[in-house]
Amino acid sequence: MTETSVTLPAAVPLLPAGLDTPCLVVDLDVVEANARRLAGQLDARGVRLRPHVKTHKSVRLAQVQLEVGASGITVGNLGEAEVMAAGGIDDILIAYPVWAEGPKAGRLRALHDAVRRFAVGFDSIPGAERLAAATSGSSHRLRVLLEIDPGNGRTGVAPDRAADIALAARSRGLTVAGVFAHGGHAYGGRDAAGAAADEVSTLGAAATALRRAGVEAPIVSAGSTPTAVLAARGEVNEIRAGTYLLGDRQQLVLGSVPPDGLALWVAATVVSTAVPGQFVLDAGAKSLTKDRPEYLEGHGLLPAYPDAVIDRLSDYHGVVRVPPDTAVPRIGEVVAILPNHACPVVDLFDSFVAVRGGEVVGTWPVDARGRSG
Amino acid sequence: MTETSVTLPAAVPLLPAGLDTPCLVVDLDVVEANARRLAGQLDARGVRLRPHVKTHKSVRLAQVQLEVGASGITVGNLGEAEVMAAGGIDDILIAYPVWAEGPKAGRLRALHDAVRRFAVGFDSIPGAERLAAATSGSSHRLRVLLEIDPGNGRTGVAPDRAADIALAARSRGLTVAGVFAHGGHAYGGRDAAGAAADEVSTLGAAATALRRAGVEAPIVSAGSTPTAVLAARGEVNEIRAGTYLLGDRQQLVLGSVPPDGLALWVAATVVSTAVPGQFVLDAGAKSLTKDRPEYLEGHGLLPAYPDAVIDRLSDYHGVVRVPPDTAVPRIGEVVAILPNHACPVVDLFDSFVAVRGGEVVGTWPVDARGRSG
Question: Which residues in chain B are contacts of A283 at CB distance < 8 A?
Fold first, then answer.
């Protein structure tokens, strides 16, 4: 796959004056439009949207999603679930095979008892046994979703093993409420359609296998923003997209977020022009991460300087290479960076600077920042 | 450079039972030995140690360094300086060309007024002008260090420009107290000796140029753990090493931290073995980062499973590839990961689990976590 991203259109966002860089800027108008767009597309087809909030880790942004039609939220671990539950959100799926031993057993039990509609993923019989033990004696059974591998090769069982594992989980006292998969191989390049087809077919095969085995498991849940629209076919009745809300450079290049759907920017200041042929930003690896898919050149995109490449990152320095005879910013200028991948970037900051029309309207906390387990 | 790291010896650390993974584990016995070793080596040569605390961002760990002989600390930005000053540390160098405009002007001024011995880097006349303006009217002049580029090509001026820029800074009302450089090109491979030689020669040339121009600038400060020992020659009289305290896989492979100097581990749990030929840890990109120099294979080292490769990271998953017929952990097992690069990994966690001899002795906050500007 050749590099195409730097030539893609990304409008230069209007940044407020007086920012203390590096900082995260989120445009609430764009966020709300993104939230409505996907919710509307899925609603028109009768597919539920259960957004993955690991992208933004913000209770308020989750509430924006719920207000325009999301049926509940998805989280990636107990810590995110705890933060969202404390924020008043009462329908939470942990789309992860939580190993409920040690401190995590008590944490899972507390969530199971406190959250009105709660479910957790699993992909093994030992994992199911720990989940059952952690919630034994509760007034109600724990709801679990069996993870299916859609060809991503990360977690999840093959469809032909689904019935045996679901029956085993049921026999341990769990309620198997459905199946889920994550078509993460869509991020490998421009193969979102293939990944979505994999998700549809493997989830369908697993759901069929469970029905034949007598397991009533109505939820058939697919994931990822690239596969969100495409995968809402077949038996899929729930989508867990996350990045669609904020957008990022990866989604822009994959075509799964439109150029006007870019809501998240890292603002940075040019702090050095001492070395010829480059300038240096105060956003380094601790602001942008080194997350860089092979099909992207550099560690983020500068829409105001589209020929510049964020070439090297150290902790607090982003070294930007510029071709000869192209415009460069002056020292002290504040620039907007479109990050390669929103999720790990957001996790580095304590708060978003929330803007509308280039004006600051608030500081929104990244409530679940650092909650990774 | 060929891949050699997985065959390097790294002893399997003793982890406490009952950890809530993923988490950072720091062995205080190893930390103290590392702190003493470098302090002793430099003291024997009359070179001051001013450790860079961006590695650990912990007031208590900085105090460990000061107790065994560090002359002060180095930080990478105003935020780290503020946290360390609030923790009672009164000798702080910001080894960074701070652009003191907007909110940063007031923050810099407050530090200048509050910290007993304070200095900040610069590498341009406009940068010096902002620093002078931010501290004008103070009871004492701001001390600044001119950054010199030792061939790293990031920030810093060439030695032949040093005198002009230093004179300009002095004429604006700043006290030019010295020169500094960061031999970061040592991280590119096994060329620490070459990078150290570059640092020595360029810093020496700059110091000479300043003397000839009549600028009394006694501090000649070199940086980075790989160059720490080697660079303490010539006119260099201060070293700003950081990672030597905790160690990491990169330093181990570069030979700048010995196998018994590895103090920092990420503890993770095996959460899935559903896909054949691999296992999956609950430490992903939000625990390990995607920081991976080209000479390292995978996203960290598992000393207990030295043939395993942490091949792919998503936010909360680390997919570990294992060759056929090698030992693999059971699902639920807790393993220790030696991270590729300590600095950005530490910045993802709110605290360290502090251990001695495999027993938990405390929880130490990562005080300056997320302070990147």
Answer: 372
- C-beta separation of A249 from A301 below 8 A: yes
Complex ipTM: 0.95
Domains of chain A: 5-24+256-365 (2.40.37.20), 29-247 (3.20.20.10)
Most confident option among A75-79, B43-47, B182-186 = A75-79
Amino acid at residue number B197: A
Inter-chain residue contact B271 with A155, CB threshold 8 Å:
yes
What confidence score (pLDDT) does residue A7 get?
47
User: Model confidence at A2, in pLDDT bands (50, 70, 90)?
Assistant: very low
What H or E segment, with its residue span, contains residue B63?
helix B59-67
Q: How confident is the model at residue B7 (pLDDT cuts 50, 70, 90)?
A: very low
Contact B174, B128 (CB under 8 A): yes
- Cβ contact B274–A155 (<8 Å): yes
Given a cut of 70, whether residue A228 has pLDDT beyond it is no
**Candidates B273, B275, B292, B319, partner chain A, best to mutate (most A CBs within 10 A):** B275
- Tell me how far CA of residue A208 lies from CA of A67, A87, A168, A218, A364, in angstroms: 33, 37, 17, 11, 44
Comparing C-alpha atoms, which of A3, A5, A1 is closest to residue A250? A5
Q: What confidence tens digit (pLDDT) does each residue in A99-111 have?
A: 999 999 999 999 9
- For residue A122, give the H/E element and its range: strand A117-122
pLDDT digits (tens, 9 = 90+) for B85-133: 999 999 999 999 999 999 999 999 999 999 999 999 999 999 999 999 9
Calculate the alpha carbon distances from A254 to A248, B274, B316 in Å.
Answer: 10, 29, 22
In angstroms, how far is the first alpha carbon of chain A from the final one? Answer: 34
Question: Residue A105 carries which side chain, given as an amino acid letter?
Answer: A
Hey, what's the torsion of the CAs at A95, A101, A104, A107, to 10 degrees?
A: 100
Shortest distance between the Cα of A269 and any Cα of chain B, in A, equals 8
Residue keyed to tokens 């000393």: B303
- The whole-number average pLDDT for the span A162-168 is 98
What is residue A85's three-state secondary structure?
helix
**Spatial separation of the C-alpha atoms in residues B325 and B320, rounded to whole Å:** 15
Helices A59-67 and A28-44 cross at an angle (nearest 10°) of: 40
In this structure, the number of other CB atoms found within 10 A of the CB of residue B132 comes to: 20
- How distant is the Cα of B27 from the closest Cα of chain A, in angstroms? 21
Mean pLDDT score, A319-336: 96
B240: helix, coil or strand? Answer: strand
Residues B179, B78: Cα–Cα separation, whole Å? 19
Q: Is the pLDDT of residue B231 over 50?
A: yes
